[in-house]
Amino acid sequence: MKIGIDKLSFFTSDLYLPMADLANARNEDPNKYLIGIGQSKQAVIRNSQDTVTLAANAAMKIVDDEERAKIDLVLFGTESGVDNSKSAAIYLQSLLKINSAASGVELKQACFGLTAGIQLAMGYIALHPDRRVLLVGSDIARYGINTLGEKTQGGGAVAMIMSANPRILEIGTQSTHLTRDIMDFWRPLNRDEALVDGQYSSEEFIQFFKETFNLYLESQDETINDFDALIFHLPYTKMGLKALRAVLENVDNLSVKERLLDKFEDSRRLNREVGNLYTGSLYLSLISLLTAGTLKDGANIGLFSYGSGAEGEFFTGKVVAGYEKMINKNSVKFLENRQAVSVSEYERIYRSFLKPQTDDAKTDFKNDPAPFVFKGQENQKRIYDQNNENRN
Ligand code: COA
Predict the structure, then answer these.
(1) How far is the CA of 36 from the centre of ligand 1 (A)?
(2) Hey, what CATH topology would domain 3-169+328-386 get?
(3) Does residue 29's CB lie within 6 angstroms of at least one atom of ligand 1?
(4) What sections of 309-363 are H helices per DSSP?
(5) What is residue 31's three-state secondary structure?
(6) For 10-44, how does the pLDDT look when each residue is reduced to its tens digit (9 = 90+)?
(7) Quick check: 44 and 16 in contact, CB under 8 A?
(8) pTM to 2 decimals?
(9) Which of 28, 37, 242, 308 to probe ligand 1 with, by most ligand atoms within 8 A of CB?
(10) Which one is the CATH code of 172-323: 3.20.20.480, 3.40.47.10, 3.30.70.270, 3.40.50.2300?
(11) Beta-carbon contacts of residue 258 (< 8 Å; ≥ 6 apart)
(12) Is the pLDDT of residue 389 over 60?
């Protein structure tokens, strides 16, 4: 049975910060951010968005009434969730009015959460071929103003529906996996900003990729020539390029090198414009590649997922003929209509995020054009709203 991604969508803020402006404000050469880090813009997430609303705004693009009835599992990958107990999947299920017979859970392993969901969904659909699974990867990447990680912030959500006989990407049943207990990036319970040993994390990322990729090639008796594209989790887009270069070093065939480097450029196009999505990053890269319009039907894509702490997985997907009908340039056109903000406005918005607190509080939701917003909290319960209903 063929199982994979049938629908795919993406959402992020209507605001962004030009990376050259951030570099100038931090007395750095803009080329360090634009080339050295590989980022042109960074999404500036409003305080009226959280991982639940970002996910709802992404998923509403692919969930219609037919889906509402057929989805019976909601898998929510995040590492910046809103509650230590209640799953974000239940909020999402409620906001999207998905039938109440569906079950939902939140999955956490740093940026790996959505990939873990994909593997669970594969098994679920194999047992229930007529059912559909909604998956999201939704996060806000916050490292702090004037920190080393500031230039690798961002946020947004990728949503997908997985099913039998998928119309976008058929996922391979074989994958290779590696887990090691390391401290490269983490976020203790008392913090809303990540702690990271960035150089160490980059080295481990490359090592995890090389090990899982080589293991995959050996176990499947394949070579790098068998791939039309290799795509990566992209905390910043230079990270993927470094990992790709690490395996291209040993490749003599120039046309293979050229093809994989060209496709990598296609696959980092949107990530470069948005920044880090954590759980959604690899899948935004997939959307970048698919919407570039350069893939042939049946193209074989290798995907590397990495979640600090750390877990890595290499798996594959075959592009389904006619995928352009399901996802194309129009799906991401909204990115062109975003508004740039100044560094001081970004800093104001960043500082305005609600901290964990007991008092009632409101966000600046009235200014937020997104369909779903987080209005604030009452009696320590989060209040969500859709489509400008009661926005006062
Ligand atoms: N023009 C072009 N490139 C330049 C440059 C210039 N003027 N100045 C510096 N660079 C390059 C550097 O050579 C380096 O490239 P390399 O990585 O290929 O060697 C790159 O820019 C970054 O410079 P560096 O000095 O390493 O940056 P930094 O110390 O400010 O930190 C990160 C960069 C990515 C390590 C840091 O932002 C970070 O930790 N981010 C978080 C990453 C993360 O979340 N990891 C965990 C999840 S996987």
Answers:
(1) 6
(2) Peroxisomal Thiolase; Chain A, domain 1 (3.40.47)
(3) yes
(4) 343-351
(5) helix
(6) 999 999 999 999 999 999 999 999 999 999 999 99
(7) yes
(8) 0.98
(9) 37
(10) 3.40.47.10
(11) none
(12) no
